[in-house]
Write a structure and sequence with these properties.
Layout: H1 3-8, H2 14-63, H3 67-75, E1 85-89, E2 95-99, E3 107-119, E4 122-138, E5 148-157, E6 168-177
Antiparallel strand pairs: 1-2, 3-4, 4-5, 5-6
């Protein structure tokens, strides 16, 4: 056995080490990129769910209104808004309910609280600006009229992850029939 061949086999060459480091660097950069992508997807999902919940909350309030109140608001949209409410967070422990009328046929701008953040005993709110467009279609016409209203809420919002400044949107809707509300 040659001593020079034994000496060569005991370690890795500089080239082998450089190749191994390059492969490790590519692997680590791929992992970091996927972590960043996963964070953006999770953040977008949080905003998407919060936006849909806000629109659904307004829709649930409209569902609980009397049929004639919704009909009157749809016939006089500038003078008779839908009488909705929302919680207001004046501090971390103080929540109050405030009037929050929605106007049919025009864009309603709202700030939705996504989270309340604590930093060294100071609290701040994470706010998502939203736009709501309410449309009410009277279904009491045609060959088989029915005393019902189709209520559509279209909403728009923007997440911090949508770097291009594009707005995301969604829609919720119900049919409000003239039946007694209990």
């Amino acid at each position: 056995m040659n001593t020079s061949s034994l000496h060569r086999r005991r370690g890795f060459s500089l080239v082998e080490n450089m190749v191994a480091l390059a492969i490790l660097g590519i692997f680590i950069s791929g992992v970091l990129a996927s972590v960043g992508f996963s964070r953006r997807v999770a953040e977008t999902t949080i905003y998407e769910v919060a936006a849909m919940n806000a629109a659904q909350a307004y829709l649930e309030q409209i569902k609980s209104m009397e049929y004639n109140d919704v009909l009157t608001s749809s016939q006089n949209p500038t003078t008779e808004p839908l009488a909705t409410i929302h919680p207001s967070y004046s501090s971390i422990t103080q929540t109050s309910i405030i009037d929050d009328p929605l106007y049919i046929g025009s864009t309603n701008y709202r700030d939705i609280v996504i989270d309340v953040l604590e930093d060294d005993e100071t609290y701040s709110k994470l706010i998502m600006p939203m736009e709501f467009d309410i449309t009410v279609n009277d279904l009491n016409s045609g060959s088989s009229p029915t005393e019902a209203l189709e209520v559509i809420i279209q909403y728009r919002y923007e997440t911090p992850s949508s770097y291009s400044g594009t707005q995301l949107d969604g829609q919720v809707q119900i049919i409000k029939a003239k039946v007694p509300t209990f």
